[in-house]
Amino acid sequence: MSDKATLEVNGKKYDFPILRGTEKEVAIDISSLRADTEGLITLDSGYKNTGSCESAITFLDGEKGILRYRGYSIEELAEKAKFLEVAYLLIFGDLPNQEQFDRFHDDIMENAIVDDDVKKILDAFPKTAHPMGVLSSLTSALTAFNPSSVNVDSEEDMYKSIVRIIAKLPVLVAWTMRKKQGYPLEYGSKKSGYVENTIKMMFRKPNEDYEKNQVLIDALNKLLILHADHEQNCSTSTVRIVGSSHAGLFASLSAGISALWGPLHGGANQAVIEMLEAIQEDGGDTKKYMAKAKDKNDPFRLMGFGHRVYKNFDPRARIIKKAADEVLADLGIEDPILDIAKGLEEEALKDEYFVKRKLYPNVDFYSGIIYRAMGLPTDMFTVMFTMGRLPGWIAQWREMRLKKEPIGRPRQLYIGETLRAYQHINKR
Ligand code: ACO
């Protein structure tokens, strides 16, 4: 393949370099387009064809259904690694040795305390508030309690902010859930592992001792790893673009949480369970809902199906489907909703509409079934996704800062009114 692409406009030719990634991906570098052509821009609504950065963190091939963090396959990491190992890998580039892991883990557990005044902010939210809105607000509020988190020029302060937010987010997650349930807000224990501690903080009932459940710990560990990064998706791009203005880490993450909340992104895991429950209540007729999903006059979409990048099986969906079977069996739960989900998948995979559009189950199709089995309220599902995605956002934000990327600022094609004169209100 040539090393340049040529664009011809009004008989004039312009050359642009072709860049190649380590996995042989190819990009036309148009960074000199406006300057060379005196003002031409590209237009790409939804950025379907636009690379926003060069990144060494996550590789995914949507056609082949491949996902790798820093070169390691998602299948191997989900099977063998601890969530904090994966967090370290994503953020710092390599798997930690024992000493590096211990230091990272200790730095995190040391910071797993949230200023008590944050409880006053939490108290001001109504119990009906969606936990994603609460979590986004509390994450942003942490900036006020950790002023050095806005210093994005010092690597030392960046490291402190990173371990602080990895430590404090599970506390905020647990408090958000407990406040809704009317339970006292409390801490876990420094001695437990990160994932176990999260479960302990979330689920310990005020009148019961905590009993360790390894099935739940392993399942959550796996889910968090599977959600940990997914290159330049909507929330990650949000974190990078907010961070590109040199806003602090917590403010950038808070924006990412808001982006993840939407039902077309992380909010899909909640939407999937609500959809499956609605189908069950309606008699379990999956064919009726398949027809609705295909009807262009009906806004209904099969939630948990389709993906902007995967035009093949989402590799995470395969792993989660297997995990859902295992967790439900280990916990002795029979959930009719799992059967409805499997029925829908089976029908969709042989339905011409879905086959033609390459719509496969995505990461969210089966994750909600595991969260449900764990005893999580539906509106907490996307919050768990947030916990998983945290290291990915941090890694992408840190990469962007260390490369000193310029502020993100897309252009537009203006299609509004041309110049017109102001009319006094009486004359309009
Ligand atoms: N159900 C029915 N039809 C669908 C679905 C679906 N879930 N997803 C896509 N389609 C159809 C569209 O109607 C469109 O059909 P058309 O070509 O006849 O107009 C075609 O497939 C392409 O769909 P787009 O919306 O153009 O694809 P895009 O890449 O923009 O959207 C998205 C991807 C948002 C994920 C979409 O598939 C969707 O809405 N899925 C359901 C929501 C969901 O599960 N989101 C979670 C994604 S994973 C994540 O973010 C963690």
Quick synopsis:
With 428 residues, the protein is mainly alpha-helical. 52% of the residues lie in helices and 7% in strands. It is built from 18 helices and six strands.
Proportion in helices: 40-55%
Count of DSSP strands:
6
Q: Give the number of helices.
A: 18
Q: Give the radius of gyration.
A: 23 Å
Strand order of the largest sheet: 1-2-3
Shape: globular
Q: Give the distinct bound molecules.
A: acetyl coenzyme *A
State the end-to-end CA separation: 60 Å
Question: Largest sheet, if any?
Answer: 3 strands, antiparallel
- Residue runs with pLDDT of under 50 for 5 or more positions: none
- β-strand amount: 5-15%
Run of helices and strands: EEEHEEEHHHHHHHHHHHHHHHHH
Structural class: mainly alpha
Mean pLDDT: 94
Strands, helices and their partners?
Elements: E1 4-9, E2 12-20, E3 26-28, H1 33-37, E4 58-61, E5 66-69, E6 72-73, H2 74-80, H3 83-92, H4 98-110, H5 118-123, H6 131-145, H7 155-181, H8 194-203, H9 214-226, H10 234-243, H11 249-261, H12 268-281, H13 286-294, H14 315-331, H15 336-349, H16 352-356, H17 364-374, H18 381-402
Antiparallel strand pairs: 1-2, 2-3, 4-5, 5-6
Helix pairs in contact: 2-9, 3-18, 4-7, 6-7, 6-11, 7-8, 7-18, 9-14, 9-18, 10-11, 10-18, 11-18, 12-15, 12-17, 14-17
The chain binds acetyl coenzyme *A.
